[in-house]
Amino acid sequence: MANLVIASDYSRFPQRPSAALLLEVHGNRGHKSLFDSTTPPGPAVDAFLPTAQLDPTRTKEFLMASTGTIRHLWALEAPAITVHRSVIQLLADGDITIPSATFVIEHPRHGLLAFDTGLAIDAAGDPHHAYGQMADVFPIDFPESRRLDRQLADLGFTTGDVKRVVLSHGHWDHTGGLAHFPDAEGFVGAGELDYVHRPGRQDAAMFRTSDLDGGPQTWHAVPAGVDHDVFGDGSVVVLSLPGHTVGTLGLQLRFPDGRTFVLTGDAAHLQEALALDAGMPFDVDPRIKRTSYQRLRLLASQPDTTVWVNHDPRDWATHRENGALVI
Length: 327
Ligand SMILES: [Zn+2]
Fold this sequence. Notes:
CATH topology: Metallo-beta-lactamase, Chain A
Bound molecules: zinc ion
Strand content: 25-35%
Number of helices: 11
Number of strands: 17
CATH superfamily: Ribonuclease Z/Hydroxyacylglutathione hydrolase-like
Helix content: 10-25%
């Protein structure tokens, strides 16, 4: 069993504290660096960073201009990953077990849309098969029963019924199930897929490009600073929330009962981190991420609006108290 060693030297990069973290794996065969983020980001990061100014009030205009709603939201049973808290919130302590979520949304006229796809199909029942040493560093609980195709079948659907997939960002714990949906239309933040294939040293281990190979062949890029109303009726709006990665996206959903839910993807990892303005080690730009945090807090302040931080186990328990069917 490998041990995770976290060494921080924030003094070296005071202007980019979130980039100064070193993770090493100590196992039976010596040790090696999994992530060496003590190297400042190079041109690979900066070349993709968004330059557009975000307008936190824009979402409200969508709500006022249209009246569509979704029919159902399911938060499928999720594989779980155990990590040291500092891996998802700088300077936090202790271990935490977090869900690796997939959401399925049913629109009354346009059918099914998935938001994120969780862990790799070939990790089900045997995480080491897909992730190797990563599965030692981050213990994974992924029984076969949590495969996306099986859960969709239990709901009376096939994977082919999912016509659209919105990918919050390109990290491995979100791209794993893309190969279930080769014929779906994909939506991704502009620059994200380019960065996945040409990452900087500091976060290269967070990407698994093979997940993308079998996934959607058509991708729509959503520019930073732009939101995209997927069905043109305000029911499902892709939100630009960059900073964690170059093209991080969230998803805003309007329910038939008048409530609005905002799924954060990894624009925030924990409600506590969002409240404290705390970053995480692999944020590509902490300054831009804080702008996205600001936007999420503004959205949460709107009437009848809930911001669901997708990796937060407390949010998961709160919003899934009746099981997968949220509404
Ligand atoms: Zn994640």
